[in-house]
Amino acid sequence: MALALHLPSRYEDETELLSIEEAIHQGRFSSAQTQGVVIRNQVLFRPRRQMVVTIEDETETLNLRFLNFYPSQQKQMAVGSHIRVRGEVREGFQGSEMVHPTVKAVSSDTPLPASLTPVYPATAGVSQAAIRKAVNLALRDPSLQESLAEFFPHQLMSELLPSYDWPNLMEAITYLHQPPADANTQALLERTHPAWRRVQFEELLAQQISLKRAHAIRRGRQAPTFSKEIKKGLGIEAGLLAVLPFKLTAAQARVWLEIGHDLAQAFPMNRLLQGDVGSGKTVVAALAAAHVMDQGYQAAVMAPTEILAEQHYLKMKEWFEPLGVKIAWLTGSLKAKEKRLAQEMIESGQAQLIIGTHALIQESVRFAKLGLAVIDEQHRFGVRQRLEIQQRVGSELFYCHQLMMSATPIPRTLAMTYYADLDVSVIDELPPGRKPITTKVVKASRREEVISGLHSWLAKGLQAYWVCPLIEESEVLQLQTAVESFEQLTQALPGFKVGLVHGRLKSDEKAAVMAAFKANEIQLLVATTVIEVGVDVPNAALMVIEHAERFGYAQIHQLRGRVGRGSADSVCILMYAEPLSMAAKERLQTLRETSDGFVIAERDLSLRGPGELLGAKQSGDAMLRFVDLQRDAWLIELAQKAADRLLADHRELVERHLERWLGSRAEFLKA
Ligand code: ADP
Ligand code: MG
């Protein structure tokens, strides 16, 4: 079954054989297949070692060029042999040629295949021919017929699906492996063919059913129940509310109620707190933490980067330490002794609030009494890692409540699939006094102009960020350009203090620079993307991003969210270097036109696919192999309804279906 579900990614049409003359004309932009007799086979050494083979039929001759080749190929294509070749034709110096065509030894009457030739997703070390052979064997295996046999009554399918004219599963899979010569290749490639639809629907159905199961399982689990009452008198939550320098926005108050309601349930919360950059998620998380601490439990806050975790730590320390809360700080960069101390505090229950990075979910950590885990920027963690925290609770009977936070809205299709068992609270309102950010897109050649604008900006007593380009290939190069910009800007802006922060600094050095920036001892902060998340300096309302074309949607959106927090009008300047790819051009344009996180997330998803949003890349939990959430959105709804119907009326079909799909998936994950 697993092998049968290893479906082709595309097809080659080897059912048609052209004469060499026809191939030369038709093979310009798509590949063509032709055959002939080898009349010449030369190994040339200029400009580099290569093999040029010439074949001939009654109509024409054609050169085949191989830039690397094996002795076995020289033998296969020796003068006088008959070969069938397939490839694109181009005009070379010595006439028409194919570069690296696929070659098959034939006799002049070797029959053509009757079906399109499948090309399978590459598997390391296994050739296409070997996969094809194995798949063919698997398709003929009687046990496959049995395991793919139709068990959905036709009547039921036509009730579940608007116009049911899909093949059954066995037919669909056979068709996808061996489509007939006249198949609609476009629909096969785009995966919109009825045969694909059948497979996609079944896959989605399995996913919907298992999501509904997961939901039921979670509701059957035990978690500590927290009374909705705010503890009177010297409670932590009351204390926090009293010292907050602002009033919660209506949206914050609403989501806080939603979370409070979940915490009062006897099963674990699984809630996402979604709110655009700067919407004030931290204080909501702090209130939730205070609430469980007031009732004798620990709360943990985990963030994906040290700098973000630190930001939380500093903020929470400011809020909670005066209220007598014991806080533990745990990250990978701590010294062994400090780590051990933190772990002891966590394990003994002495620490009420625990803040840190991935270090929180390491083997050696044991929480004494964890009531709530807050996971910031949840999409940066894999599904696995989010589950890990549960393992650290130390009790298999009790689950902790989980609150995920993200600035990235979950598109509807994801909410209906991977995130179906996640309740979502949205902060859809920014704190009062926020100014919209004006975004400008500027060519790098206008750098001087930008710097002189920066000068007048700083002269007004305001501060600014200068973000250096992301260089994915090399951290050293990234650092180098940051240092160069830092030196140039220091020179160009006499009278102002310029600071530099980057990933190579130790965390106390980073903290010192950030503190100086916050205190306005530094006016311009040159930074690498380490400031991407969480940094909060209201007086800094201008941000220049160098080489903005190298950043993704989400990154710029996050970065830009650092400004627009104070009373000054905020500006973000996206500098770009030419040439600009179409994708980068569109990205910058969208970012200039909108700062709506939802629009940006949708664009982003259409570009990158859901893997990154999910963190599924690292988790191996991407259950949908054949479904594209965007292309097949309409199918999701159908599958959801079908899952409800089956769970209600056809339990036995549900079991068989899960067995069929998840059984094979389990096998697949092991591979
Ligand atoms: P994010 O949702 O991006 O994590 P933060 O929680 O860091 O946002 O909040 C951004 C800023 O807004 C912080 O300086 C925070 O103190 C401030 N803030 C949060 N809630 C309010 C509010 N209700 N009124 C005014 N300022 C607020
Ligand atoms: Mg935040």
From TrEMBL:
Domain Helicase ATP-binding: 262-427
Coiled coil regions, renumbered to chain: none
Keywords tagged on the record: ATP-binding, DNA damage, DNA recombination, DNA repair, DNA-binding, Helicase, Hydrolase, Isomerase, Nucleotide-binding
A GO biological-process term: DNA repair
EC number: 5.6.2.4
InterPro entries: ATP-dep_DNA_helicase_RecG, DEAD/DEAH_box_helicase_dom, Helicase_ATP-bd, Helicase_C-like, NA-bd_OB-fold, P-loop_NTPase, RecG/Mfd, RecG_dom3_C
Function: Plays a critical role in recombination and DNA repair. Helps process Holliday junction intermediates to mature products by catalyzing branch migration. Has replication fork regression activity, unwinds stalled or blocked replication forks to make a HJ that can be resolved. Has a DNA unwinding activity characteristic of a DNA helicase with 3'-5' polarity.
Protein name: ATP-dependent DNA helicase RecG
Native organism taxonomy: Bacteria, Pseudomonadati, Pseudomonadota, Betaproteobacteria, Burkholderiales
